[in-house]
Amino acid sequence: MSSWTVSSSGRPCSRSSSIGSIAMDSGGGRAPDGRYHEGPFRNGWIQGHPRSGGLRPEFSSIDSVRVSSHRSRIDSQEVSRVSTSQSATVAESFRRSPEVVAAIDSVIKKLETSQASITEARPPVDGGSETLEGWLARSAEARGKGALYPYVGSGMGHGPLVELVDGSVKWDMINGIGVHMFGHSDPGLVRVAMESALGDVVMEGNLQYNSESIEIAEFLSQEALKGSRLGNCFTTNSGAMANESALKVCQQKTDGAPRVIAFQDCFMGRSTTMAQIGDSAAGRVGIPLNTHVDYMPFYDPAMGERSIEMAVWHLDQYLKRYPGQHSCFIFELVQGEGGFRTAPREFFVPLMEMCRERGVPVWDDEVQTFGRNTEMYYYDVLGLGEYVDVLTLGKMSQICACLYTDDFNPKPGLLSGTFIGSSSALQVGLAALRRLRDGGYYGADGRIARLHAAFREHADAFVAAHPEWFPPAIDTLGRPITEMVAGTGGMCRLTPFGGSREKIMKALHIMFAEGLIAFICGHDPYHLRFLPPVGVMEPAQFGPVFEVLERSFKKVDAAD
């Protein structure tokens, strides 16, 4: 049954916010360049003022007081806002009507009854394969190429299990590459989505938006201010656009400095500029290279302290070679596409401190890590918030965002866009984030930490039982890698078959046919990538997942 409750406003435990209470300063709606600009959200207030001077004030406890007092201001005004503003609208009267509430309750009850039959992986129903093949043919015709997996969802699932149009059910351990962190057909989120569909528009943007756009920006900035100075939030509709926004903010702050520093094996998105920064040759084939990128070595656990010393030396060399030419250093605190590689705090601190000393903005890219570890923001896991000037996030939040400090608040006109996201994405994303924050997911003994521990327990036992599938992988320096199980939080990694891309891809397709969806990550060696739905998956469910994995690997052997 759903654990969600419905407030008097007809929405599931949702803090209300009135647009009428938000102050806006955007120069009469026009920026100096004559374009409309709706400024970023600043702790619940919309601003369009020019950035302030100076690169970075010292991190202060004043920020934590500021977010606390702001939350108190919202809480104290909530009741009066609902009673004097929202409850007086036609929209709120409609949403709160007994007929609407009863209709939604009825649908959710039927959903829970229907999904109860989805309890394990199973093959297609009779005639289902032909149905799936028909859809895949239509997809290939429409897109101009076939899909990687024969995946077309039916629109129904149950937590980590998803049903396809052929009637088969599979364990979904990739979840849209980290987007569906409450799995499939979660009753609480379906309820929010249904309520969002009662609104007047499908998409919201920077010129016209409803209260949920304000609420999610408030939430993100308030949570960020607990451990950083990131009090300004610009929301957008993709990770690439969030990253493009961050790059513009950094470039404007540094007066158009043309160079960027990033880690080797990073991934930044699919836009023209982000494809150039991302360290993937295949992602930029045929694209003119007009972005100057200096790549840094990521942490090498085999080298330990020496790895830190080498990274500091490399950064010093870049900054001496191109003085005043770097707009930012982009930090992936955990490398996602790069292989779920982690690094200790001691690796990042000297690099960030050197950036601070040399005037290079620190950009924390959390599009892949946000929300799925022992803290909502990964910089809080490592205690790095004081160094971060700009941050990007996305995926499990359902919308994406660029956050920045007061010093980096850009001039009017730099950031805007027709779309923020759909009303459904905004409301569902906010509900999911509140559930994560308040539901015991974070902390050393939170649900996410326990889920990762369960993955490691099953994976370690799997490796020990089948050493023949886990020979040492060889890295680019010719060294053997013997750590077969790795990752952090909801980012889980397994390295079979010596890290061979060919064999891992073969295994992935067999796994899919057997009822388990995963993906690949890393660059020579390669790894199996798992992004389990941390919001709903139970530790015990890794049992049947690894049963499918074992069955699949046996078929990989048989196919050789």
Q: Can you walk through the features of this model?
A:
By secondary structure, the protein is of the alpha/beta class. Among the domains are: 203-438, Aspartate Aminotransferase, domain 2 (3-Layer(aba) Sandwich), CATH 3.40.640; 447-559, Aspartate Aminotransferase, domain 1 (Alpha-Beta Complex). The chain has 16 helices and 24 strands. It has helices at residues 62-84, 90-96, 98-115, 128-143, 175-178, 187-196, 211-224, 239-253, 272-277, 305-321, 345-358, 378-382, 423-438, 447-465, 501-514, 542-559, and strands at 24-25, 41-42, 45-47, 153-158, 161-164, 169-172, 203-204, 232-236, 259-263, 292-296, 326-331, 334-335, 341-342, 362-366, 390-393, 400-404, 421-422, 473-474, 480-481, 485-488, 491-494, 516-517, 519-522, 526-530. The chain has a 10-stranded mixed beta sheet, with helices on both faces. The chain has a 4-stranded mixed beta sheet with strand order 4-5-6-22. Helix 10 (305-321) packs parallel to helix 11 and helix 14 (447-465) runs parallel beside helix 16. The protein is globular, with a radius of gyration of 24 Å. Residues 1-39 and 44-84 have low confidence and may be disordered.
Low-confidence stretches: 1-39, 44-84
Q: Supply the number of helical segments.
A: 16
**What is the name of the CATH class of the domain at 203-438?**
Alpha Beta
The dominant shape is: globular
Helical fraction equals 25-40%
In the CATH hierarchy, the third-tier topology of the domain at 203-438 is known as: Aspartate Aminotransferase, domain 2
Relative strand content: 15-25%
CATH architectural name of the domain at 203-438: 3-Layer(aba) Sandwich
Calculate Rg over CA atoms: 24 Å
Instruction: Give the number of DSSP strands.
Output: 24
Instruction: Report the sheet with the most strands, covering strand number, pairing sense and barrel closure.
Output: 10 strands, mixed
Class by SSE composition: alpha/beta
Strand order of the largest sheet: 1-3-2-8-16-15-14-11-9-10
User: Overall mean pLDDT score?
Assistant: 88
How far is the first residue's CA from the last residue's CA? Answer: 46 Å
CATH homologous superfamily of the domain at 203-438 - what is it?
A: Type I PLP-dependent aspartate aminotransferase-like (Major domain)
